[in-house]
Amino acid sequence: MELNHYNDPSLIGGCSVPVRVNRKTKPEASEVNVGGIKIGPHGVVVIAGPCAVESRDQLHETAFSVKRSGGLILRGGAFKPRSSPYNFQGLGIEGIKLLKEISIETGLPFVTEVMDTRQVEFVAEHADMLQIGSRNMQNFVLLKEVGMQKKPVLLKRGMMATIEEFLLAAEYILNQGNEQVVLCERGIRTFETTTRNTLDLSAVPMLKHLSHLPVIVDPSHGTGHRWMVPTMAKAAIAAGADGLIMEVHYNPEEALCDGHQSINPEEFSALMTDLDKIAQAVGTRLVKPEPSAK
Ligand code: PEP
Ligand code: MN
After folding, report:
1. 254-286: per-residue pLDDT in tens?
2. Predicted confidence (pLDDT) per residue in 200-258, tens digit
3. 265 CB near ligand 1 (under 6 Å)
4. Which of the listed residues 99, 199, 221, 262 should we mutate to test ligand 1's pocket, taking the one with most ligand atoms within 8 A of CB?
5. Which of 68, 136, 143, 159 is the most buried (most CB within 10 A)?
6. How many CB atoms lie within 10 A of CB 12?
């Protein structure tokens, strides 16, 4: 018997939603505070930055362009989960220090990935939000570890995870006492080969139907194509996303990681103008920077 789950028989195939993340337990939408920036029901928050931190110059230039265009949170990977062990693995601790430096310079809070429990304490000390990547969505030891931290967590959907498994992963974090969790749809693996992943935008209304946690979308990993990012970013807002996380690089052609899906600062700036219009058209708004943030 599952005392801590609610079954929803109206859902095709059924879905058992664990109690802490369940909207039946907490009907009002949750808000997650990332270094003063609130992700939740009051508008759309944009997180942007490079896939990986590569150098001080790269991060500095990209972060300031993100800020100029209205991005509210900086992203950047220091510990990178790469499919090939021969690819750039990230700057590690040096990357976290650079993120902290540039975060202070720009005033933008930052999110960065943790891949291993041994990194959690150090990263939690410096970062404003801890990212659990797709490949670690079911690393239950890591989920428990970030659940014991005081920092918010960005939980990315596993590339083969069902909605139920995704919510169960989030439940692991909440169970440890950390309720500051944002869910991120970043595409799932399907039979399709023209896109890197299949961006499941239907997950947005479904997750928001089943859970009170904020939901954001990553159109960069979701498509794998720079030219598709603006279209799918707009579609994500229309689907009800509380935010977006996108890869922006000052020179995508030279990027050490995911340049093919990174937009440049000019494209990002143009997109932000469009996102504002889309947000208003669907009855929400793009959250704008406040001088007092952070
Ligand atoms: C990333 O955000 O750079 C990343 C590796 O994402 P994902 O875990 O979704 O592949
Ligand atoms: Mn990436």
Report:
1. 999 999 999 999 999 999 999 999 999 999 999
2. 999 999 999 999 999 999 999 999 999 999 999 999 999 999 999 999 999 999 999 99
3. no
4. 221
5. 143
6. 6
Atom of ligand 1 nearest to the CA of 52: 3
Ligand index nearest the alpha carbon of residue 257: 2
Model-wide pTM > 0.85: yes
Which tokens in the block code for residue 102? Answer: 């540039």
3-state secondary structure of 132: strand
90 lines ligand 1 (CB under 6 A): no
37 contacts 29 by C-beta, under 8 angstroms: no
**How does strand 16-18 pair with strand 5-7?**
antiparallel
Give the domains, in start order, of the chain with CATH numbers. 42-281 (3.20.20.70)
Ligand 1, atom 3, residue with closest C-alpha: 51
Q: Dihedral of CA 98/99/103/104: which sign?
A: negative
Phi, psi of 228 (to 5 degrees): -90, -15
How confident is residue 8, by pLDDT bands cut at 50, 70 and 90?
confident
DSSP H stretches of helix in 245-287: 265-281
Nearest CA to ligand 1 atom 9: 134
pLDDT value at residue 11: 78
Residue 280: what are its φ and ψ, rounded to 5°? -65, -35
Q: Quick one: which of 239, 246, 234, 238 has its CA closest to 273? A: 234
**Residues near ligand 2 ion, CB 5 Å cutoff:** 51, 258
Nearest ligand (C-alpha, residue 245): 1
Q: Is residue 291's pLDDT more than 80? A: no
Helices (H) and strands (E) in the chain, counts: 9, 12
